[in-house]
Design goal:
It is built from ten helices and six strands; from the N terminus they run ββααααααβααβαββα. By secondary structure, it is of the alpha+beta class. The strands form two sheets. A four-stranded antiparallel beta sheet has the order 4-3-6-5, sandwiched between helices.
Length: about 250
């Protein structure tokens, strides 16, 4: 392995070991090794189960989807892309088959756990629309809050004038977030506040933050959320598997 060539740069050969040393120098070796370990665990798990069979029609559909998404419908473009990737059609089919089997493994591990996970974590999955004003001093935040109590409709104007964050350009309106993403000090006050309420100030964002509750977004177990939960459950499964592995690195 010391002399096994991984790639060449201007006719200079870089061995697998040298490549790992470069990754270690840049601090990227752990992430690289983790990807190898994850894929090894997935493929070993697939070998244990004969149910992960990919039908020819599934594989062909996956190839069609790849070609369509990458603008490779024309045969000459597809052939040029394969050459650029230094890949044969057979090796592409093999890669896609492994990915499809990995998806089947993920489905088997996670499918029965999605609904219980959703029910257990429903509060954490609640999303909310908020606006905010962030200032440097608590006294300034208190003064602005007093102004808002007299004129609640001035929130956007005051955000544009005083807030330190980039969303001041859109009157303090924040992207939708999960309530669980808020700092703990703000989660419960926000959760129980009716829309239109001004919450705070809290010591957040390196300053003091006032929040206005705009709208609560009902939690629905739609396809997007299902996929997010599926990914999270699968990551937990992988992490548990990794914690049980004894790993030794034999390259210095």
């Amino acid at each position: 392995m010391e002399s096994q060539v991984l790639l060449t740069i201007q006719n200079e050969s870089i061995s697998f070991v040298q490549a790992l040393k470069y990754l270690r120098t840049t601090g990227d070796d752990q992430a690289f090794i983790l990807k190898i370990l994850r894929q090894h665990l997935v493929e070993e798990e697939i070998k244990k189960n004969d149910n992960f069979v990919v039908k020819s029609s599934e594989l062909e559909q996956s190839i069609v989807q790849l070609r369509t998404q990458n603008g490779l419908v024309a045969p000459e473009k597809f052939e040029a892309w394969l050459q650029e990737k230094n890949m044969s059609y057979e090796s592409l089919r093999d890669q896609l088959e492994k990915r499809l089997k990995a998806e089947k493994l993920k489905l088997e591990i996670t499918e029965s756990k999605i609904q219980p996970f959703f029910e257990m974590n429903q509060k954490k999955l609640e999303r909310i629309a908020l606006s905010r004003i962030v200032v440097a001093q608590q006294q300034e935040a208190e003064t602005i809050k007093a102004q808002l109590q007299e004129n609640p409709e001035s929130f956007g104007e005051l955000a544009q004038k005083h807030s330190l964050t980039e969303d001041r350009y859109v009157k303090g309106i924040m992207p939708l977030i999960f309530i669980s993403q808020l700092p703990e000090v703000a989660q419960e006050p926000v959760r129980v506040a009716p829309p239109g309420s001004i919450i705070g100030p809290f010591a957040l964002e390196g300053g003091y933050c006032l929040l206005r509750v705009e709208q609560f977004i009902p939690v629905e177990l739609d396809d997007t959320l299902k996929q997010q939960i599926r990914n999270q459950i699968f990551e937990q499964w992988l992490a548990e598997k990794l914690s049980q592995c004894e790993v030794k690195l034999h390259v210095l």
